[in-house]
Amino acid sequence: MGLFDFLKAKKNTAETAKNRLQIIIAQERTSRGGPDYLPLLRRELLEVIKKYVNVDADAVKVDVIKDGEHDVLDISVALPEGQS
């Protein structure tokens, strides 16, 4: 440690923590493979479908699939037998 080290501008620890958190969040989003809104979208779809058809919570699947340069929203609903 030099005599004049105290004169150097030190990076704010809050700013460093914020930057690290942003990196972690970005990595989590990419590792999950889908946008943040998918779980909420799935729950809301399930609520709407339950108004008309009695389905299990696992009946609704929502995924994002890459189709060339585009992301395609893939929604699958498993209806109980006898209801269509």
TrEMBL record:
Family: Belongs to the MinE family.
InterPro entries per the UniProt record, alphabetical: MinE (IPR005527), MinE_sf (IPR036707)
Coiled-coil intervals: none
Name this polypeptide is given: Cell division topological specificity factor
Any single GO BP term: cell division
One Pfam family it belongs to: MinE
Annotated HAMAP family: MinE
Protein role: Prevents the cell division inhibition by proteins MinC and MinD at internal division sites while permitting inhibition at polar sites. This ensures cell division at the proper site by restricting the formation of a division septum at the midpoint of the long axis of the cell.
GO-annotated molecular function: identical protein binding
UniProt keyword annotations, A-Z: Cell cycle, Cell division
